[in-house]
Amino acid sequence: MFHDRHPHGAPVPNGVANVMSVDVEDWFQVGAFEQVIDRADWPKHQHRVEANTDAVLALFADAGVRATFFTLGWVAHHHPALIRRIADAGHEVASHGWDHLRVFTMTADQFRDDLARARAALEDAGGQPVTGYRAPNFSIDTRTPWAHPVLAEAGYAYSSSIAPLVHDHYGWPGAPRRAFRPVTGSDLIELPVSVARVLSREVTAGGGFFRLLPSRVVARAVEDANSGGDPAIFYFHPWEIDPGQPRVRAAPLKSRIRHYSRLGAMAGKLSRLCKAYRWDRADAVVAAQAARLS
Question: Which of 53, 161, 199, 283 could form a disulfide with 140 if both were Cys (CB 3.0 to 4.6 A apart)?
Fold first, then answer.
């Protein structure tokens, strides 16, 4: 149950708009399965991203929420009508790269090419400029000092690609936890994903942790950010509301537990979260943060 009060009793500020974001990829494109599902085989698998994203759009319409859809260029290429529906519903279409390659596996030139290929597909399909980017698996970190300069050079307004914590698949624990400008002399803004605390551990505020943990964990992260006047940055994936998706038996047990646990609970939890706090597109929140950082 969500409440309209901070966990310590203070009212949650009504004026803070948080970022609702969706990382649009299909069930077979996730990092957890990249060692057992070859990219060359992606076209052979059942595509469920369109139906799942349409369900997300309906959930947002019911809650009156505008969001940012960080979408793979590969998805835009194969499902262009979906991208148009996202844009026509008033949401922002942003980039999640071409085919979910982690940024730290690329060179700067390869990253530049990946950005351009994805942006072209997304803009062709959606009919609107793409000015935001999220790295697959939050893979901008200390190994990629060239990544933000490449994004700035390409004219992106913002990135939301850093998880400022320790995790076995990602993380930049020394990074700022508020919006910041990562490139001197550039207007580029980085929006790190929000961090939630579970006892002595820190986790990202969204995705699998939102599915697996009590709703109050993420609620506290939102309220703590808002109480300091900052937006919370929340994310999830369309496949997370699809309990009927195919099972990948060859994946490691840990990956299967993370991926498939509590899929049936996700839509209800999301609906309640959407209605409990104020949410908006990332580009709108970035515009407000730009004034603070100027």
Answer: 161
